[in-house]
Amino acid sequence: MTAAPHHRLDGPDGAPVVVLGPSLGTSMDLWLPQMPALTRAWRVLRYDLPGHGGTPAPGGPFTVEDLAGGVVALLDGLGVERAAYAGVSLGGAVGTALALRAPERVASLVLCCTSPRFGDPGPWRERAALVRREGVGPVVDGAAGRWFTPSFTGADPYVAMLRATDAEGYAGCCDALAAFDATERLAEIRAPALVVAGAQDGPTPPRGHADRLAAGIPGARLTVVEGAGHLANAERPAEVTEAITAHLDRTWKGARR
Ligand SMILES: O=C(O)CC1=CCC(=O)O1
């Protein structure tokens, strides 16, 4: 699947482009907390995963590498030669795959609450089967607990994104996560990389996930955000926005407006 996904461009015409990838069960609006800061200096290109937000449900199985191909198709269609890429969780895995597949297109990389391998494939396959059988209802229950720390009170808009997600799109993304394993290829990544982890992230805890990315990608920096669960950019927007903009300032045309 290399068709370009549903997308949206914001920010100044002609500014360096930053692509933002969302997580399983969320739309491009996952990134709303970062938009005011990012659109001051960058042209921000957000996209939706298959069956999420405005991207149609998939016509068949697909891999994380296929999703990276969709981002390449998007860049080609918009005439964007090179861009920075930031992604959360599955969106981060797409960034990893993109940096491996098309290194010349990736000027800078931010990998948030993600992993080179999302654990054993079995539970992802089971989750895909459950959602194909019963719809997204069973995974909506408990989503706030998977995504945020117990004290976070702003989960509702994010859970609403999951409730609106197409079951086959969600299941296909689970299958893609099951098959994804970039562990042995991290040393090939050439883009300057920042790895951002939520200290209380349950699905991808810093230990065993972010630390592996940071250790495996040459020159990568690691920032662990306290008081943040899996969707750290939503739960701790100020800290994550600052980490991302500082990295982009260093690596992708500098000047913050
Ligand atoms: O299980 C979840 O909802 C958390 C998650 C794992 C990969 C991803 O994109 O989100």
UniProtKB/TrEMBL annotation:
Signal peptide: none annotated. GO terms for molecular function: 3-oxoadipate enol-lactonase activity. One of its GO terms (biological process) is beta-ketoadipate pathway. Residues 18-242 form the AB hydrolase-1 domain. PANTHER family: MONOACYLGLYCEROL LIPASE. This is 3-oxoadipate enol-lactonase.
